[in-house]
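Standup notes
- HV: blocked on the assembly model, inputs below
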Amino acid sequence: MYTWVDPIPHGGSLGEVRLVQPTVMAHGGAFDDRLRLLATLNLEGWTIPNGELALGDWGEGFMDRRHPHTYVHEVMLSYVHPFGRSSASLAAGKGFAPFGTDDPMSRPPLRYPVNHHLAQILERAVVILGVRTGPVLLEGSVFNGDEPERPGSWPNMSRFADSWSARLTLYPGAHLELQGSHADVQSPEHREGFGTDQSKWSASGRWTGSLRSAPAYALLEWAQTSEADGFFVFHSLLGEGAWTLGRHRLLYRFERTERPEEQRLLDPFRSARPHLENSILGTTRWTVHTAGYGFRLTVARAVAALPFVEISYGRIADVNGGLFNSESFYGKTSFWSLSLGSRLNVGLPLHRMGRYGVAQDTAPMSADHQHDQHDHHSR
Amino acid sequence: MISMITTVDRQLLLTLLGAGLLACGDDSAVQPTVPTTIEAVSGDHQVGNPSAQLASPLVVRVTDDQDRPAAGVTVTWAVVDGGGSITSPSSTTGSDGTASAQFILGPTIGDQRAQATAEGLAGSPIGFTETAAQGSGGPLVLSVAGGGNNLADRYSSDLWVYGNHAYTGTWNFREAQGNVLNVWTLDAAGAPSFTSSVTIPNIGTVSDVQVSEDGQLLVLSGESGGDYGQDGGVYVYRLTDPAHPDFVGSVSVPYGGVHTVTLANLDGQLHAFAAKNPGSIGTDTQNQPALLIYNLTEPSSPRLVHREPIPPHYGIHDTFVRDGLVFVFAWDEGFILYDVGNGIRGGSPSAPVEVSRLITAANSSSSPAVHNGWWFHNPVTGEKRYLFIGQEGPGVIGSRSSGDIHVVDVSDLAHPAEVAFFHLNGAGTHNFWIDEPNQVLYAAYYNAGVVALDISGTLSGDLSGRLLSQIKPGGTGNTYTWGVQLANGSLYAIDMLSGLWQLRTR
C-alpha cells in the first residue's frame, strides 16, 4: 500500500509504501466443535516496525502512526456447552476482551480509526465466560490491564485479572446486533501497573444485510474512556458503511474522536514510553471523513485481490486547553490522506476477530460483510 | 569562607607591619588603626513577626580615635531577652569598620533585646531593642518585579540562580527543541535579561540545572533523546565565565536518561545524585530506574560510585541531599531515605544505607505520585522536623494540574510520619524553595503560578489557612510555573510558558 499524508508533524507531507496487516489465521475444532481454537498471527512487527503512516492514530508509543500489533494477535481456546435452548462457554488465551466493537482490521476501511484505543481492548491474557440465551448474549472477562509495548510483548501475567469487562449483546433481528459494554482497565500504559486506570464505555449498533440485493454493512458506535478518576475523558462517535455491487465496493466512514496529546520524542511520530508522569499536553478532536472504492479480482483459485483507493479528509481541533497547538505543530488544522494498494486474501475467509465461544456462534461468516471475507463470499 | 579568612589575615598582617613602622619612630609613616570605639549603625528599633527574622541586620561600626574604620575586630553578638537567636554568634569588622548579624525574634510578643560586644572598646556593649508584633513584619505579598515573557521559541524547565546570573533549562518542543540551557544576566536591581544559550546534543529536554556552592561548576540533566526518547545523561560545565558555560564533561545514561541531578559536597568531594528514568528498550536491569551517584572530583569525567536500583513504580523523580542524607522521591514508592555520610547508618556515597521510607497519601489524586521534596531546617526553633513533599498528580501541561503538598514529620528519621497537607483547588504543586529564616515555603504551582506558605510552628492537618500569597506571573492562560528560587533578595520563578520572572516577596 502506498500512503500519502499532508501535513505531517512539523509540517510538510510524506508518502510511504508499506506492507500492512499481514495476518495468518487458524481455526480448529474438536468434540463436535465444542472445543475450539482461534488463532491469528500478525506480522506487522516485521513489515511496519515503525508503524503505518496514519495521521490521528495513536497508542503504544506511536503518534500519527498506527502501531504494529503483536505477533500473536490472538490465540484462544474455548469450550461451548449447550443447556437446552441456551449455551455457555468458557474461553481463555491471549486475545480480545469482550468490550466494544470489532478489530478495525476486520472492517471495510483499511485506514484505522482514531478511536482504536477507546473502542477495543486486545492482546491481553483473558478468560471469558459467555452465556447465550435467545437473542441475548452476555460476556464477562478478566484480563491483564497492560498494553503491549512492542510486537514481541506478552501480557504481564503477574497482573492477570487486575482488569475486567462485560458486554451485553442483543440480536433483535437476523441482521442487527446491538451491544453495550463496560471495562475497568488498570494501568494500561504502565506495564508494572502504577499508571492511571481507565473506565471505558461503549455502545454500538451493527447491521449486515442487503441493499438493493447487494451486500451491505453499517456500524454506528459511541465510546468513552475516562482516565485518572475522571481527570481525563475522551469521547468518540463513529459511523461507517460498505456496499458491494458485483465486483465494486464503496465505503464511507465518519469519525469524531478525541485523543490525548502526549509528549513527543525527537522522532515526532513517537511518544515517551514508559511514562514518567501522568500528564498530557492537551486533547485534540479529530473529525475525519474517509471514502473508498475497491474492485475485486480473482487472481487464482482461493486467491482474491482487491485493489482499492481510500481518501480521507479531516480537521483537527484543540479542546480543553494545554500546550499542544495543532496549527503550530502541523502547520495547518486540516489534512488529506490518500492510500492506494491492494488487499490480498489467500485461502479461507477471515474470521471475525475477538469473538470466542458462544459469541463466535453469533458471528457467522456468511452473514458478515467484512472486507476480504465479504468479497470472498460475494463471488 | 576561605577567601574571607585570607582577607582577615592580610589585614592583620598590615596592622602588624604598621605597628612595626611606628616602632621605628618614623612619624611620616601610615598611622595604624587602633580600635577604640564601637557604635550602632542600623538595625535598632525594628518591628517584626514573632519567630521570624528581622527584615534588616543589626549593624555596628568600630573606629579608632580619629574616627577611621577599624577592620578585623571581632564583635560578639548575644540575645539579652525574648528567646530569639542570632544567626552567627560573632562577626568581624570589614574594611569599612562594620560588622553585622541577623536577629531572629523569639516567640514572645513585645520588646526583645540583643547586644553587640567588642572587648575593651568604648560604647561596648551596644544594645538593640526590637519589637515582636503579629503581622507587623509586613504582609508577604508576591508581586512582579521584573522579567517575564522573555522566551517564545522554547518551553522552559528548571532554574538555578547564582551571583548575578541565572540558568534555565528547556523542555520538549515548542518552535524549537528543548535541548538548550539558557543563560541570563541579572542587573543591579535583579531583573533578568537573556544573555546566551548552550545546546546539548541528542537530548530532547534539559530537565534540571544546578550550580555548585562555589560557583565553579554547573551541572544539568538531559533526557528524551534518541529515537526512543531514552537517551540522556549528566552534563558538566565550568563557569569560569559565568555568562558562557564551558562544557567540560558528561556521562551518558542510556535506557532512560536523567530526570534530575542534585549536587552535594560529601567528605569534601563534590557528588552528583542523578535520577535515572525507567527505560523500555533494554534488559530489565538496564531499564530499571535508579539513583546514580557520581563523584565529580574530576569534572571532565564523572565517576559512577554507586547505582541504587529503585522500583519501577514510575521510578525516581528527584532527590534532596542534606547532612549526609539523601531523600529519594520515587513516585508511588513514596520517598526513600538513605544515609550517604550522615553516620546514622554508616552509609557513604559509594555504599548508601537505607534509613526509612514512607508512601504519602494520595489524597484526592489517583496515586501518591511523590515527586520532589525539601527537608526544612528551622533556624528559629533549631528543629529539623519537617520534610515537605510535592505530589505531581495528573495534569494537562499548560492549563491544568493536580497534587498536594504533603508534610512528613522526620524528627525520628527512622520512623517518618505524615502529619499535614496543603491542597489548592484546580492546581497541583511542583518544585519548592524554602526561606528557612523566615519560615516560608515557596512552591511553584503550575497553572496557579507561585504560592507562599507560612510553615512556622507546629504543622498539622489541613494547612489551607497557611496560604500567605499567590501570584500567576504570566496571568491566567500564560502561567505554568515549574520552579522557584530565592536569591539576592528576590524570588525567581521559571515558567514553562512565560519564561523567567523576578518576584518581590514584600
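- HV (later): unblocked. The radius of gyration of chain A is 20 Å. Confidence is low (pLDDT under 50) at residues 364-379 of chain A.
- Next: hand off to the docking folks.
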